[in-house]
Predict the 3D structure of the following.
Amino acid sequence: MKNPMPPEREPLSRYLDGELDYAALPDDLKSEADRFERIVRALRDDPYGTPRNVRDAVMTRVRAATVSPWRRAWQWARTPKTLRLSPLTGALALAAALAILVVARSGNVAGSPELPEPAGAQRATTRFVLVAPQAGTVAITGDFVNWDPQGVPLRSRGDGVWTVDVPLEPGVHHYVFIVDGTKWQPDPNAAMQVDDGFGQRNSVIVVPGATRS
Amino acid sequence: MTEPLSDEAIVSRVLGGDREAFGLLVDRYQTELAAYAKYMTGNPDEAADLVQNALVRAYRALHQCQDPRRLKGWLFRIVANECKTHLARRKRRHAEPLSAAEGLATRGDPATEAEAAELRRRVHAALQRLPLEQREALVLRYVHGMDLGEMAETLAASVGALKMRLLRGREALRRELEGMAL
C-alpha cells in the first residue's frame, strides 16, 4: 500500500500513534501535534450521556441460563474416572471405537463436506464450507481458536459459497459460523450438533487421530 | 485492605458454579465497554443494549475461554463485533445515522464555552461520519488510550493496518475541522 505520509511528517504520526515522545518531535511539528491534542480532548469530552447500568439485566439473563445436559456431560467427560468393564463389554466398546474410526477416515463423520488428508504430523487440514449468498462476511470460530469472536475468515468463491481450510488437531471440535460479524449459526452440513448450554447450537466435527508418516 | 479479585479468579469462580461472581466482571468493565459502544453508535441506549448482549454472550462462552488473564481484550472484541453487526444492520435498513452530537446544546453562555461546545459537536459529528474501521481505531486509541499492541489484539488487525486507519481517521477529522481555531 502506498504510504500517504511524507517522510518529514512521519515523526508526527509516530507521536500520535504513541510510539514517540513529545520531546523528540521536531519543533515545526509540535504545533500540529498540539492542535490534534485539542481535537482529542474534544473527542474525550463525552456528549452522549451515561448509558443505563446493565448489571441487573445481564445478571437476570445469567441466572436464567440453564446448564444443558450436554455441558454437564462434557464436564463429566473431562473428569478422570475409574472404568470397570467386563471382557465382553470391553470388546464391544473396542469394536465400536474402531468402526467410528474407519467411518471417520472415510470422511463421512466430519461436519464439513470435504476433509483433506492430514497435512502434518499432528494436524489435519479441514475444509469448512458454508453456502450463504446474502452474507457480506463469513468467519468460523470454535474451540480450536479459543472461541475467538473474530474467528477465522472464510473466502467467498463468488457464487455464494464460502470456504476456509483450517488445520485441526485430532479429536472432537465444536464450532459455529459467524455471518456478517456476530450472527453465530451452526454448520448446516455438520453431521452432529450439540446444545451449547445456553439455547444455541454448536456444530461438531471429528478429526481422526491417525496421521500418515 | 483486601486485594480485588483478579479476572482469572473471578472467571474460575464463575466456572465453578458461582454465577453471581459474573456480576463482579460486569461491574468492572461495563462502563468502559459502554463508552466504546456509545462512541461507535452515537447513542447511549443502543450502547447499553449492545453491551448487555455482549456480556451475556461472554458469560455463555466463558467456559470455553482459555486465557482469562486477557479477559478485558476478549470482552472488547465481543462488544466490537456486536457494534459492527448492529451498525451493518442499521446501514442495511438505510436508517439515518444517529448523531447525538449534532444536537448538542452548549454548556453555558460564555463565548469560550460556546466555542468548546462547537468543537465538541463538530468532532463527534465527524467521528460518526467516519468509516467504521477508522472510527473504532480512533476511539480505542484516543478515548480508551489503548496502545497499538492492545488494539491489534482487540480488533484482530495488524499494527500496520491500524496505523493506516489512525492516519486516515486523523486526516478526516482534520479536514472536517478546517477553519476552526484550534
Observations:
- Residues 107-121 of chain A have pLDDT under 50 and may be disordered.
- Helices of chain A lie at 10-16, 27-44, 55-64, 69-78, 87-105.
- The first helix of chain A runs from residue 10 to 16.
